[in-house]
Amino acid sequence: MKEINKTSFVMLLVSACLTSAPVVGAQTVNPKPTPCAQTIDVCGCTLTQPGTIYTVGADLDADHGLTKAGNCLEMAADHDILDLVGHAIIGNGSGIGILIQSSAHDSTVQGTDTSEVGQAVVNHWGTGIEVDANNVVIELFNGIGAPSMFDTGNTGDGILLKSASSVTVDNFHASSNGGSGVDVQGGSNNRFMNCDSLTNTGNGMVFASSNGNTISNCTITGNTGYGIWLNTSDQNQIFTSAVAGNKKIGILVGCQKEGKCLGSKGSNLNHFSSTGAKGNSGAGVTVEQGSSNNQITSMTASGNGGGNDLIDNNPNCDGNLWFNNIFGSASQSCIH
What we know:
By secondary structure, the protein is mainly beta. It contains one helix and 30 strands. About 5% of the residues lie in helices and about 35% in strands. The longest helix is centred in the first third of the chain and has 15 residues, at about 5-20. The N and C termini lie far apart (about 110 Å).
């Protein structure tokens, strides 16, 4: 029998052990995102070049590909412009149509170009558009959700802001979504203008722990939940809007004792003016106990349920000022 060289045997044994032994502390490296071309023709890419104008060249569909997170488009770079040029972004019921990551601050997403060819649609996603960045502009969308109130929208929220501040959302329709038309979680000083939030399964608009926001020239109608809900949110303003025909209270200030919202969590120093609250199944406006120093002026409220058009659940209105309002009935004499 041939004699085995001992040195070779030891080296082979060590090599085998190193090959078969697990690597301690090894980490899985996530693959880099697929960068978008400046003209985007399919879902599944990420805007990675700062200060760049991207345009969508065709209708985009989830069946043609998705990002690693299951979304259509993701914005990761700052100071970008994404122009949909009137095209539709259609999903499969999950994921996000357009995700604006926290790194994509000072960016713009517009549904149409300056030639006014047509306004874009983002529909059939889990969430239509999610904003995690500050100083973002979203404008000119025919449908964030269904383009028609008789169609089906996104399965969750139409527009979701998560800890985002100084965001402007202008000239949009958020309709028939399975969540809320607009859902703002945290952040501050956002503006919603010239908009519709219609027939959503959740609320028309909800602001949770979010301060200093403005709603103006918006129609919030036919939502299954509240028209507008300020949940532990201060110094918000609602002007020249219509909040009508919602299945719960038209405008709720504070927190009702239902669901996950237990106890008294006040919303303070909010101001509503020149806005109608009519035909809601609950009251037109309710200020819950623990909410103080709110101003409700020049409101028109009639034909609402809940026993009264205007309700203040604080003893003697507790610092809330109600004046120059037109209404059918009110819960207290301090409401004028």
